[in-house]
Amino acid sequence: MTSLLEVKDLEKAFGRSKDVQVNVLKSVSFSLKHGEIIGLIGASGAGKSTIGRIIAGLETANAGQIFFEGQEILSLKGKERRSLAKYIQMVFQDPYEALSSRMKIGQLVAEPLVIQGIDKGNKEKRIEKVRRALNSVTLDPDKYIDRYPHELSGGERQRVGLARAFVCEPKLIIADEPTSMLDTSLRLELLALMKKMNEYNQVSYLFVTHDIALTQGFCDRLIVLQQGEIVEEGKTKDIIENPQHPYTQSLIDALLILENHKGD
Ligand SMILES: Nc1ncnc2c1ncn2[C@@H]1O[C@H](COP(=O)(O)OP(=O)(O)OP(=O)(O)O)[C@@H](O)[C@H]1O
Questions:
Q1: CA of 80 to the centre of ligand 1 (A)
Q2: Which residue's CA is minimally distant from atom 13 of ligand 1?
Q3: How far is 24 from 44, CA to CA, in rounded Å?
Q4: Nearest CA to ligand 1 atom 24
Q5: Which atom, in ligand 1's list, is nearest to the CA of 42?
Q6: Residue 126 lies in a domain
Q7: How far is the CA of 149 from the centre of ligand 1 (A)?
Q8: Are strands 172-176 and 204-209 parallel, antiparallel or unpaired?
Q9: Residues in domain ABC transporter (predicted)?
Q10: Which residue's CA lies nearest to atom 14 of ligand 1?
């Protein structure tokens, strides 16, 4: 079976001029299977978000290839590239910034359908999909559809963000630190919802996080990124219990120190 996503030798440099460039991604290669959940972990500045943004088409690459269901997507332009958003959606870190304050929840969740021209002219079908997406994130459509984002809590807004990602029934969701602005119980709740959708309709996730603790019980595999390079990858359990690379070990040590100081 072909992979859902295959990233090959991805490179990215940022800089103020042609002469002053910093390589933030150095030949990054990995693949993700249909229905798989991969955690992309690493410290701040490692390049995790940049990888997610390139896959989602929000950033360009300097070199490399990305195959989505066998089709190379970095070379696609304009309408063809934009049409991929139906299959690849992104959930962002900040539920306050991600949602336009002037739109009602129903309109916000319907927006990806409108942008993609899905069920154009079929208002009933769109409403049905919006209601289904809200239900899937345990927000009662009757209660939420006519409300505005400022009337919602952070956890509810992030669930709206997730409903927006689910509404097109994508094959891949890139979730960039989606829980980092939520407290612990809401974090686990959001991950449980994401896991349920994965079991229910096989959606795959690339879960970007600096918090290795969140990947336990959620991610099938982990990819560890250090300064733009993959230093280790494998099954979540194997990596957490038996890290091979000193950098991975240091991420786990940092986690253990935090755990031990929780009661202080
Ligand atoms: N648009 C940009 N222009 C210039 N430099 C950038 C830009 N976007 C990212 N960078 C730089 O690229 C590097 C990788 O950033 P990226 O956001 O991908 O890291 P990250 O691993 O997601 O970090 P964090 O966990 O803090 O979000 C950083 O050094 C960052 O400063």
A1: 27
A2: 45
A3: 12
A4: 44
A5: 21
A6: no
A7: 28
A8: parallel
A9: 5-252
A10: 47
Q: How far is it, in rounded angstroms, from Cα 94 to Cα 260?
A: 28
Q: How far apart are CA 47 and CA 220, in angstroms?
A: 21
Residue ranges around ligand 1 (CB below 6 Å) = 14, 24, 42, 44-50, 210
Q: Write down the pTM of the prediction.
A: 0.92
In 10 A of CB 57, how many CB atoms? 17
- pLDDT tens digits, one per residue of 107-164: 999 999 998 888 888 889 999 999 999 999 999 999 999 999 999 988 899 899 999 9
Q: If you search the block for the tokens 């709740």, which residue do you land on? A: 189
Range of the domain at 15: 1-87+204-263
CATH of the domain at 222: 3.40.50.300
For residue 48, report the distance from its CA to the centre of ligand 1, in Å: 8
Which of 11, 12, 44 for mutating ligand 1's site (highest number of atoms within 8 Å of CB)?
Answer: 44
Distance CA 63, CA 101 (A): 37
| Ligand 1 binding pocket mutation candidate from 24, 174, 207 (most atoms within 8 A of CB) | 24
Q: Has residue 122 been placed in a domain?
A: no
| 31 lies in some domain | yes
Question: What Rg value do the Cα atoms of the chain yield, rounded?
Answer: 19
Q: Could you read off the pLDDT of 202-220 as tens digits, one per residue?
A: 999 999 998 888 899 899 9
Q: Look up tokens 């300064």; give the residue.
A: 227
Residue 24 and residue 225 in contact, taking contact as beta carbons nearer than 8 Å: no
